Amino acid sequence: MSSWAIVALVAIVIWGVVESIRVRAGIITDEDGNEKFVPREDGRSAAELEAARREVADLKERVKVLERIATDANSSGAREQARIAAEIEALRGLPAASKEEPDQ
Predict the structure, then answer these.
(1) How many CB atoms lie under 10 A from the CB of residue 19?
(2) Residue 37 — φ and ψ, nearest 5°?
(3) What is the DSSP letter of 17?
(4) ∠ Cα 72 77 79 (to 5°)
């Protein structure tokens, strides 16, 4: 076989694979050459679509929570609350430290 024949054969095989994938995906070409998507009418694809929609909605909710956590910790109010909490904890430690010193 010549190299051009091998190239032609590989091109035909690749074209066939691409066309079979397009047909499985529901992409058809009409007589004018326009491509249209025709969804499958089986119940499984509708159930898969609904499951994917629910999953996307769940992931969007998780992203919202993560965004809120990331931004709330960096706000001035959150920093002020953290500073006050640290001061309270420091004050709680002072009496305990002063009580330990006379006992020693």
Answers:
(1) 12
(2) -100, 125
(3) H
(4) 80
Distance CA 96, CA 77 (A): 29
Angstrom distance (rounded) from CA 38 to CA 28: 7
How far is Cα 27 from Cα 35, in angstroms, rounded to an integer? 7
Encoded tokens for 14: 């690749």
Q: What is the mean pLDDT of residues 22-51?
A: 77
Rounded to whole angstroms, how far apart are CA atoms 63 and 70? 10
Its pTM stands at 0.37
Specify the higher pLDDT residue, 57 or 71.
57
Q: What is the dihedral of CA 10, 13, 15, 19, to 10 degrees?
A: -170
Give me Rg for the CA atoms of the chain. 33
Shortest CA distance to 28 belongs to which of 36, 20, 39? 36
